[in-house]
Amino acid sequence: MVKGMKQTEIGLIPDDWEVAKLGEFCFITKLAGFEYSKYFNSYKDGGEIIVVRGTNITNNRLDLSDVKNIPKKTSDFLYRSKLSKGDLVFAYVGTIGPIYLIEEDNKFHLGPNTAKIKIEKENVSTSFIYNYFLSEYIRKEIEDRISIGAQPSLSMSKIRDFSIPLPPLPEQQAIANALSDADAWIESLEQLIAKKRLIKQGAMQTLLTPKEDWDVKKLGDFCDIDSENLSSNTNSDYEFKYISLENVDEGKLLGYTEHKYSTSPSRARRVLRKGDILISTVRPNLLSHFLFISESTDFVCSTGFSVIRTNQCSAFIYYHFFGSFVNNQINNLIIGSNYPAINSGDVKGIEIPLPSLTEQTRIATILSDMDAELEALTTQLEKARQIKQGMMQELLTGRIRLL
Description:
Blueprint: E1 5-8, E2 11-14, E3 18-21, H1 22-25, E4 26-30, H2 33-40, E5 49-52, E6 57-58, E7 61-62, E8 68-70, H3 72-77, E9 88-91, E10 99-101, E11 108-110, E12 114-119, H4 126-133, H5 136-145, H6 156-160, E13 163-166, H7 169-208, E14 215-218, H8 219-222, E15 223-225, E16 239-243, E17 248-249, E18 252-253, E19 257-260, E20 268-271, E21 277-280, E22 290-291, E23 299-302, E24 305-310, H9 314-320, H10 324-334, H11 344-349, E25 351-354, H12 357-395
Parallel strand pairs: 5-11, 16-23
Antiparallel strand pairs: 1-2, 3-13, 4-12, 5-8, 6-7, 9-10, 9-12, 14-25, 15-24, 16-19, 17-18, 20-23, 21-22, 21-24
Helix pairs in contact: 7-12, 9-12
């Protein structure tokens, strides 16, 4: 055993830490049946107080895109389930585990499928408990106690039985502050990425909007569409890398699989060359398009893609498939369809505004540079999240001490 550590039901923790059940230092409750049936069921009265339901907590943040409300007088009357600043709201039915820390008084009330957790001991930091609920350790507590039925759920008694490590209060606060700093770093990156995406959207709208001296041409008039395919004459031992529809997501290649022609999927037919543009013809509104820039000559994609090959600037044409000029045309093609899809003939008929090749390249370079910046920031964000996860693993177990 590591010096200065002790073995407990949740593993090794420092000698001066304790383990307590959540219910020993928290008031934990859910919405009572009569509260819901009498005051919440129809939400007919509306009001200024937002009811926090399980569906309103997404990625441990409050999603207010679909809210229900009750009057303040009702919330005040049902004081047991009223939410105040510092209360934790925990989803205990369906998707179990999301949690939110209430930051305002007189704004929220407990709703269906969520539990209220209120810290009642002065030697326990709410922020520390909140961060512990974000960790992998609470996930184990959930998995050990979850009841599987029509929907997975946890009873209040099982939530009260969660085992929680408790450092001395100053150390709880130091840990919470360190993790809060990491959260602030992550949030600043998320906000910067969101801002850069908006800037890019604005740039695309400005740069790709047709100008007076641009020609508008149909793709089929200056591009080859699906011009190179594997056929029944292909050597059965031919090996290739295959890109399926599932491998592409909004300009990103998520992976590929390797096959021999003799055992390959029946849709693995479109041969790819550098500069080819893969346009998803199945649910094209999801924008699962990709610009193939590899020098490799052994890639093949699904016939669910239409492959555009051109002697114009490929990147310029590719970016148009994320802009409004082209997507308005695609939406008109699939409107009213139960299964939104287009075909190669539709792709050939799509109109593209074309400036000079020099101008195409200039515009594509600007947008490509923006993409590169976004990709670098996204990589930085993933690294920040990984660092925070590492911090949680070390700080919440006492393997690293801040005090």
